[in-house]
Amino acid sequence: MPLDLEFVRSCFPAFSEPTLASTAFFENAGGSYACEAVIRRLDTYYRRLKVQPYGAYPASREAGEWMDESYRRLAPYLGVPEDWLHFGPSTSQNTYVLAQAFRRLLSPGDEIVVTNQDHEANSGVWRRLAADGVVVREWQVDRRSGHLDPADLARLLGPRTRLVCLPHCSNIVAEINPVAEIVAMVHAHGARCVVDAVSYAGHGLPDVGVLGADAYLFSLYKTFGPHQGLMVIRPDLRDALGNEAHYFNADQPRKCLVPAGPDHAQVAAAAGIADYFDALDAHHHPGAAADNRPARVRALLHDAEAAPLGRLLDGLHRRPGLRVLGPTNPEGRAATVSVVPDGKTPLALAEALGQRGLMVGAGHFYAVRLLEALGIDPARGVLRISLVHYNSVEEVDRLLAALDEALAAQ
């Protein structure tokens, strides 16, 4: 059954908001709209459960139960046990804490591999470990396409490689990296693998258990949820990393990698993502078995993006004066498309499109190293158009028409 776009949009309050009625949202890579179930849970929590959770009185116990539900409900959609999940303030903060924890596992002369395709959050924090004597090796992209070749990684791995950090897909070129293949290669060398999935997860939460990554991180506010980061960490790695929180919380797995402590309300609201996915599956596959629901939802979101993404790529490639980054085929890439215009600056085009009700992004998007590798001035940046399953082909057509107007205007 194809995606029922009317049903989908009924699940997102933004589509009923009068101030947004004449707009089309193409900046999902920076943060998606929040679904109704998440907003409702957050509102209810603040109204009657905004107390310290896990206490002795009813409201406190219920507040803790709401938080527990998020672990329990999201874990199946990620294909892992719930004790692998760790909520934190953001993916950037979570990665920073993870890097600090890795210090105790690394010795001078140990090697880590990072890429220049990443968002800086999964690059810079690891590079800083060079100050402790760790050898940092860079897995570099192809300077024309931005592609990461696994064969190049194989040549970087050695007997002292301890860690490899990479994106599931870039937030600029959007090519989907073969994570399972790469993880298997890294593990064969006895090293760990940390995967940044911020630019991937909004297009369908993957089966992390199958991918095999030791740590897999993404942002819930880009998967229709609250402003939180989520880490999926294998328990053996979590135990090896030790405690980054207060010393008396060392025996509490949910706290040991979140030194700031959890944002109770937002953790509780995260279960609304599962509410939405459950409703999406029930609407499109009534009566189907619940145990196959994650795979069905994943396929539904992926298939829904194919037509709008194909139309967007085809339309952009047909227009002269635009350098379109990343794979030309919708297969093998996420629905995030970055463009480098010959004439007008990306910011000027974004502003012109914004005046026409088309919301897009412009900038370097914290991928400065990648833009430099591709010969693009980070200060000028790119025009980024990012869609998810609630975008339509009609919106893409409207965007392309507005882009023509903006390019033609003096």
Q: What can you see in these coordinates?
A:
This protein is 40% helix and 14% strand. With 410 residues, it is of the alpha/beta class. The chain folds into two domains: 139 residues, Alpha-Beta Complex (Aspartate Aminotransferase, domain 1), CATH 3.90.1150; 234 residues, 3-Layer(aba) Sandwich (Aspartate Aminotransferase, domain 2). α2 packs antiparallel against α11, α3 packs across α11 and α11 crosses α12.
Keywords for this entry:
410 residues, Aspartate Aminotransferase, domain 2, four-stranded antiparallel sheet, globular
What does the secondary structure layout of this molecule look like, with pairings?
Elements: H1 5-10, E1 24-25, H2 36-48, H3 58-78, E2 85-88, H4 91-102, E3 111-115, H5 124-127, E4 135-139, H6 150-156, E5 161-167, H7 179-188, E6 192-196, H8 208-211, E7 215-219, E8 229-233, H9 235-241, H10 264-269, H11 271-284, H12 293-318, E9 322-324, E10 336-341, H13 346-355, E11 358-359, E12 361-363, H14 368-373, E13 382-386, H15 393-408
Parallel strand pairs: 1-11, 3-4, 3-5, 5-6, 6-7
Antiparallel strand pairs: 2-8, 7-8, 9-10, 10-13, 12-13
